[in-house]
Design brief:
The protein is of the alpha/beta class and 285 residues long. Helices cover 46% and strands 17% of the residues. Helix 4 runs parallel beside helix 5. It binds NADP nicotinamide-adenine-dinucleotide phosphate.
Length: 285
């Protein structure tokens, strides 16, 4: 009876369905929600664009609240989906629990988790301060692992979900002058590949994306502008996000952004001597 009284007006745009009169909430066709960390710039911002264009609701996480709000506004205007902003410093030890609690408080269910935020510092290990080293380890390892654990438990309850962790092509090597960062990314590579296998008999997937040098704010923050790592050229963050999206949807275990990166990641298997491999990496840096 109640429903009869309410004039339900279905209005189809090319992507979305609005139920006018019943609720003011804008609903996507698929209603899935993706949480993206490090979404205020670089690859994460491009991931937000890709997922928004595919009709997902999005939760954007990073420190820069203003940037996140402006991205949210742009995406909501362009695609009419729901975009939430969740400012958080992910280098803090308790940041994963804070994000998880806030997501729960807002009544959001996360279908896809993209652990993208990360940073490194170029230079000798002895020049890396204790505080910055801890931040690198927290953001690249601890927070990623904890966020994965917290949201995966929910995904297991519904036997559905996807996780994408961002490592690096450098994850396969021992990289002098990026010793802590590259080792942290090695952890992410191995952790995610192991998880991919553990989840093989479920409807939940875990993939790891390994970008090579990419044109983002990462190089400047790492103070690596004069290093050799970028001399071979950089790819666009848009391309990396598009390849990451496709790989995630196809349940690829390890995703590389192009043939050059794939070849680079095969170095470890082509050169059996780790001493030689590390010496080559040292010269390259
Ligand atoms: N660019 C490359 O060459 C390259 C190569 C291989 C792997 N990667 C990996 O790709 C991922 C994305 O990096 P990117 O290249 O897009 O770098 P980017 O342009 O520097 O973006 C990094 C993102 O992470 C966020 N972030 C940094 N520190 C944070 C913190 N403490 N708390 C919360 N968010 C933080 C930044 O936002 P706020 O500053 O607003 O917090 C920003 O949104 C990283 O995991 C990186 O390690 C990059």
């Amino acid at each position: 009876m109640l429903l009869k009284k309410i004039s339900i007006n279905f209005c189809y745009s090319n992507k979305f369905v609005y139920f006018r009169g019943l609720t003011n909430t804008k609903l996507n066709k698929n209603m899935e929600t993706v949480l993206i960390t490090g979404a205020s710039g670089g690859i994460g911002k491009e991931f937000a664009q890709v997922f928004a264009s595919k009709g997902y609701n999005i939760v954007l996480v990073a420190r820069s609240e203003d940037k996140l709000k402006s991205i949210a506004k742009e995406l909501e205007t362009k695609y009419s989906n729901k975009v939430e902003v969740l400012p958080q410093d992910l280098s803090q030890a308790d940041s994963a629990s804070k994000i998880y609690s806030e997501v729960k408080n807002r009544g959001i269910a996360i279908d896809i988790l993209i652990n993208n935020a990360g940073f490194g510092k170029f230079g000798y290990f002895t020049d890396l301060g204790l505080e910055e080293m801890t931040e690198i380890l927290n953001i690249n390892i601890t927070t990623v692992t904890q966020l994965t654990s917290l949201f995966l438990k929910d995904m297991k309850e519904g036997n559905s979900g996807k996780i994408l962790n961002i490592a690096s092509t450098g994850a396969v090597l021992s990289l002098p002058k990026l010793a802590v960062y590259a080792s942290a990314k090695s952890y992410i590579l191995h952790f995610t590949e192991a998880l991919h296998y553990e989840l093989k008999d479920t409807n939940i997937t875990a993939s790891v994306l390994c970008p090579g040098p990419t044109e983002t704010g990462f190089i400047k923050r790492a103070e690596a502008e004069n290093s050799n790592i970028i001399k071979g050229g950089m790819v666009s963050p848009k391309l990396v996000a598009e390849i990451g999206y496709k790989g995630l949807m196809r349940n690829k275990m390890t995703i590389t952004a192009g043939f050059k990166d794939k070849l680079f990641m095969m170095l470890g298997t082509l050169i059996p001597s780790r001493r030689l491999l590390t010496a080559m990496a040292g010269r390259l840096m």
